[in-house]
Here is the input.
Amino acid sequence: MDRRCTSSRLRLMLTLHCLPQLSDVAELLATELVTNAVRHTKGPAALRVRYADGVLRIGAWDADPTPPAPPPRVAAVGAEQGRGLDLVRACADGWGWYPVATDSGKYVWCELGAA
Here is the structure.
């Protein structure tokens, strides 16, 4: 999955749906979710974006049913990784995950309000 292509498509989609104010944060969150799915699992991954009732939901599916590691309360100074879900938690209005079917992977999501 090419992250630059995904980012530009997400930005274009949000602009076409009159939500350009969400582009920067949505791009950051989508990148973090997809990066985690690719970096920490073996197998395919996919990004899904949905807008309904004033809420943008961004999610990443991967084939590994293992729950995501909880974000650290405080990232170590100088740490170059391990901050992805911490960024998601800090920038999104809500986030979570759920297993997909029996051993078919998981879906990690976050939400942004359009207001």
User: Anything to note?
Assistant: Strands lie at 45-52, 55-62, 94-99, 106-113. Helices lie at 3-16, 23-39, 84-91. The chain is about 35% helix and 25% strand. The radius of gyration is 14 Å.
